[in-house]
Structure prediction request, 402 residues.
Amino acid sequence: IFSGAYAEPQGAFRIERNTLAPAPGRLIAPWARSDTPGYAGGGPKFDLQQWNPEYFERLHDLMEEASRLGIVVELVLFCPFYREEQWALSPMNASNNINGIGAVERTEVYTVEGNEALLAVQKAMVRKIVEELNGYDNLYYEICNEPYFGGVTREWQQEIVRTIASTEQNLKFRHLISENVANAGEIDLMRGSGKVWSLLHPEVDILNFHYSNPPLVVALNYYLNRVIGENETGFKGTGDEYYRREAWEFILAGGALFNHLDYSFAVGFEDGTFEYPDTQPGGGSANLRRQFAILKRFIESFEFVRMRPDNTVIRDGIPREGRAHVLADAGRAYAAYIRGDAEELNLKVVLPAGSYRVEWLDPLSGETQDAGTVRLGAAPASLSAPFYHGEIALRILRSAEQ
Prediction:
């Protein structure tokens, strides 16, 4: 969810019923409305020195319902203004508030030097939200969505990190903080520019990437011992296949978080049944969500926090131009996902010697087939898939029968 400091005009990015584009006069932000007309999105201007009680009441309602349903919320505090029409709708724009704060270009909103009044407003908003939501355990904060656009400076990001951390020093609980590192599909991974290196602030717990398929950023940054996530994907058409496979690959590569833009959720279709037009940039459907649930149940069937990426387990048999990802708790449990075109699948695997239970899973239907107990060891052994339609998952567990 976005904080309300950012909004989009209706029709932005060709998204039908864009949930970041409120109807005229309907934007609910952390700041209260004044009695002065003139907000560009309809209704009175905002007062950046006053909080909006209705906003925080709704925010608590959302967090409580998410907690009841077991949903983890990523609260995105800020977002760059990609175009002038987005900056024109922000309460932080001086033309939209009665305080005269924010008389800057859209590329200067998230800077430290020479921007003291607006920075103070931003930090006050962060402190207020962090204080209000401290008691929820199903929450983490993202500093800024896609800060690599629109003039967001690293100094500003680190100032926001410090604000979150220092606020929670005086509160009961501490929450994870996420930095959105890059659009992985648009960076030179072969030269290592997907690595975070020394740029990482010590208080940042989650490294989030967008559009990370294949999931090369996981291997590049795994050594940092941070949560690595893909918290936005879409813009690959309206079909399910691409996003299902992207999710399986990212999680089985060692990623810890996957989040998909699902356009079937919209105002008036809060149950995810909106039948969006083919012109949407992305997809989403009840069927795709069921397939994501298959992945969730599969990975949670393991003690996954004990597992690490280990693609050396599969020595041969991956389809030509296909890919395989393996998570391993060495000698105890193995989770694998294989994709690629082939008429049949026959893998050569090497594990510590012992007896293992082998089970194959169809990522589309969730149907499984138990291959029984097999004896595996240092020499490559064959595992033949009973069915294969371009992708399959594999569960291998150490058996008590030795």
Summary: The radius of gyration is 24 Å. Residues 53-69 form the longest helix (17 residues).
